[in-house]
Fold this protein.
Amino acid sequence: MTSERSISSWDDFPVHQTSEFIRHAATSDRNFYDRYYFNMHSSSDDFFAIFSLGQYPNLGTTDAFIAVTKDGIQRIMRASKPLQDRMDVSVGPLRIEIIEPLHKLRVIVEPTDADISMDVTWTGSIPAIEEPRQYLRARGTVVFDTQRFAQLGRWEGTLTVGGEHIAITPDRCGGNRDRSWGIRPVGEKQPDGIRQSISVMPGMWNYMPHDYGDHSIVYMCHEKPDGERPLEEAVRVWNDPSRPIEWLGRPEWEHDMISGSRLLSGSRIHLPDAPEGPITIDVKPLITNFISIGTGYGIDEDWRHGMWQGDTEVVQALEYRVEEIKGLAQYGVVDSVGEFTYAGNVGYGLYEHGFFGPFPPMNLHDRGDLHP
């Protein structure tokens, strides 16, 4: 027997899917991951908090972050440690408690030098819904093979950021969460080799789950530069679980891109096949969180999701002015709180977009192009 144990707490539960211990994924692909994503907002431009925790069994690491944008400042706490027990859903000052699976969770962030602390409880407004599986192969290698579920909900508790104590109440504070697992690029950057001239997820990415009070709409679209769509979805989910999920048909998008950037000032999502007849959702951003900087989503060379940070736990604090980082961050995923309106309904939620490499429909003809 070696000092490095494969057995862990999860192995005492009947959840095995392969002949391996739960500590080991069914695939040896280094890019296997299993993570939580949450966001929280006040249905306004007051603040936008995003927090996440991921495990990377084949890289032997687990990490987490919280990023809060408020008053033009983006504050980040990020933490990493070696992965020992997959039932341990905590890293540094951040931990997740699953109170009622698929319905109620608690997220706690203890105070650090990042000047962010939090104790909030999530309650799902709609049932957790299964998203389409995402599968992408680039020149022979599987780069995405992921499964997710998504949920809209409300938050309650307290948030402290920049010395200000904010009461989080469910009447005004909502958000969305997802659980995703599978294969996608994580850890230290691999040699590009034959893939050095291509993006692992080329084209446009839209992800916009949003809440109207008695129902939510989840729209997503990955469209390649040539118009092919590896992934798309538009569904309406009612808070009343007795009402069926409604498929809204093929979504069509219309975006307003800010000149000299890859950022959007607004959008219209057209759903011509909705059950009640064609509808158009108008969207405008209220406040933006540039999660591609500092949190591990790929732009920083020294901190990527799953990257080995050493044998001991590491906790770091970062602070940026939003105006100073958006020029670089616009080349990654951009998350905003959005205001969504259609047919007299007003809702709030995630307005997420990304334009990766060329995308001629928006006059982006090279990987570094900005909108004219």
